[in-house]
Amino acid sequence: FVDNFDASESKPRSLSILLPLRYPRKSAPARGKLDTFAIIKHPLTTESAMKKIEDHNTLVFMVDVRANKYQIKNAVKKLYNIDVQKINTLITPLLEKKAYIRLTSDYDALDCANKIGII
Description:
This protein is of the alpha+beta class. The protein has five helices and four strands. The chain has a domain of 83 residues: Alpha-Beta Plaits, CATH 3.30.70.330. One of its GO terms (cellular component) is ribonucleoprotein complex.
């Protein structure tokens, strides 16, 4: 009489100890997240951007495509010490992201642009 009994099922599992890795498990380390300097690429100095600065208290920056409005707001606050009222973003036909950054009434966009070096 043959029974379909597997002897390995009845034995207790042996203790497994985590040993330190002898080699990296990935060939390249993971890239870091977007940092403040990677989010904001450069300010825009076109005529329409200058008009926004003068008329609407708004600065215009080219930003990383992966950055969201919250990250852009924090990056501007950290880099330029400016409070932001709101941010509008768009993706250009060249697949770059443009951010229109409306400043609070406490700040003048013209003064901030001079300090940054846009004008």
